[in-house]
Amino acid sequence: MLYHLFHYLQEFDVPGARLFDYITFRAGLALALSLIIAIFIGGPIIKRLERYYAMMGGEDQRDLDNQGRITAHTSALEKIQRTLNNLEESDKDKMADVAKDLEKDRKSKTPSMGGIIIIIAIVLPCLLVGKLTSVYMLLMLVATLWCGTLGFLDDYKKIAKHDKNGMKGKYKIIGQVGLGIIVAATMWLSPDIVMRENVEVHNRQANKMEVVHSQEDVRGTQTTIPFIKNHNFDYAYFTRWMGSHAQTGGWLLFSLIAIFIVVAMSNAANLTDGLDGLAAGTSAIYALSLAIMCYLGANVIYASYLNIMYIPGSEELVIYAAAFFGATIGFMWYNSYPAQVFMGDTGSLCLGGIVAVFALLIRKEWLLPLLCGVFLVEALSDVIQTFYFRYSRRRTGVSKRIFKMAPIHHHFQIPAGQIRYVKFQKPVNAIHENKIVMRFLLVSIFLAVLAFATFKIR
């Protein structure tokens, strides 16, 4: 709204109105707004969620203080306190068990649905400083609200209906598939979603290769493939046997891939959300990385230098990515260890869906396995664990595990030898939750650097 207002004020030569023409200015403003909004609305929303949790869970299980905040379960804390009083300082094992009981008690009292904070902190700045006539911005806002609503319904059923399983998995998959179809169809049919392919041309006078972009906008199925000489790849290559309908076949193939990526990323983010600050922190790194990639691809000068495709009009996604980054950082104000609120499926399904749709729009979906390596490993560890658990039970009658617990971030929390029938188990000592999160974030930063290196490593 502010963008369109200041664009109108330019006709009257209002000082400072032209600042809104600069992507960097609006991106910085969106980041600041999202960060401020997340921090300031976080507290009131958490208090309301605590009251709601108390009402749904019953006041006999959760006590409220005079400000309406959930306090610890009285009977549990009294039991733990009595145990502590009877322990000697040398009895470290029992003290460790007591610490675990305290941690479980804390997490059981922490409200979920905190993803509402992230969604509001993304949507409001985009509405204020974004260009609302841009199909890129509108599509990202639709994806945000779509995935957020899907996750909210799942969380609501868990809390209000006292159903720990929440929404049935098939309904979540249907919702995610629906978003993939919307994204693919919009990219296929919208005349505003175009690209200009980069081509290497030999300059005989200077005796060197130069990168030039076609002057015509093309609505094609080209994408970016890392680690090869020519980054560009057309999905229509696989459907060239269809003759004159090869391009249509390419779009249908792209649609199937888009659906798979949306479903996979959304569920991978959901699995990653298991430790305080892990999903939000990794998503912040992904948001910043995608913002830079988008900025480079939306600028013809940088695109030519890096020899990547130029996507005109996609610079509006930088505004969205800045708001996304600010929202996740602001959410970590409350979600970092020890968490005051969990994002729940409202946030985790939304984060994965956002990353997937964003990568599809800037034609970088094949960089996701490298960039979002933490999401990928978390999802694979869960799939491998489930498969081997069922396979071993059928073959030997005893359910065995590859990891001590899946997703893999829980594997590092459990002391060696605590769980039986673990294959390939190494004597890994239990690691504190906060250290696991920080190490995963460092790995995410390293993978993001490698993702950018692929622009030149080919």
Mean pLDDT: 83
Total count of helical runs of at least 4 residues: 16
Task: Tell me the quaternary state.
Answer: single chain
Instruction: Quote the distance from N terminus to C terminus.
Output: 42 Å
Tell me the strand percentage band: under 5%
Overall outline: globular
Order of helices and strands, N to C? Answer: HHEEHHHHHEEEEHHHHHHHHH
Strand order of the largest sheet: 1-2
What portion of residues is helical?
A: 55-70%
Radius of gyration: 25 Å
Unreliable spans are: 58-76
Secondary structural class: mainly alpha
Major pleated sheet = 2 strands, antiparallel
Count every beta strand, where a strand is a DSSP E run of 2 or more residues: 6
Report on the structure:
This protein is mainly alpha-helical and 458 residues long. The protein has 16 helices and six strands. A two-stranded antiparallel ribbon has the order 1-2. A two-stranded antiparallel sheet has the order 3-4. A two-stranded antiparallel sheet has the order 5-6. The radius of gyration is 25 Å and the shape is globular. Residues 58-76 have low confidence and may be disordered.
